[in-house]
Amino acid sequence: MPYEESVRKNKKRARKGEEHSVLYHSLPDDKMEFYYKVNDWEKLSGGKDQGLIEIKGHRVPFAVFDNMPEKTDDPAKLGPALDEVFARLAKTKS
After folding, report:
1. Do the strands 58-63 and 50-55 form a parallel or antiparallel pair, or are they unpaired?
2. Taking the CB of the first residue and of the last residue of the chain, which one, N or C, has fewer CB atoms within 10 A?
3. pLDDT(38) > 80
4. Given this model, what pLDDT does residue 39 score?
């Protein structure tokens, strides 16, 4: 996901006074830039949307949830998308 889209979503879900909640969490712009501007996921994943990555000697399965276009704001889209990504994750062999 492009950095600009991450910033847009961060601002969209933010609610003053609830920045640390699960549903309305957000980060200030300086922290967004520090933590999210450079995204090395492509390098870590080898450009794959599922597979295994090694973390401290452990092979960990992963499956990418593609949220472009956005699905998290529509339960009718979110449920099937999560079913699909979890099915792919379950098929990944360690």
Report:
1. antiparallel
2. C
3. yes
4. 76
DSSP state string for 44-62: HHTT-SEEEEEETTEEEEE
Residue 36's nearest CA partner among 68, 4, 73, 64 is 4
Give the Cα separation of 40 and 70 in Å (integer).
Answer: 21
For residue 63, report the phi and psi dihedrals to the nearest 5 degrees: -145, 130
Place of tokens 């450079």: 38
Give CA angle at 57 (55, 63), nearest 5°: 40
Selection from 52, 42, 45, 43 nearest residue 88 by Cα:
52
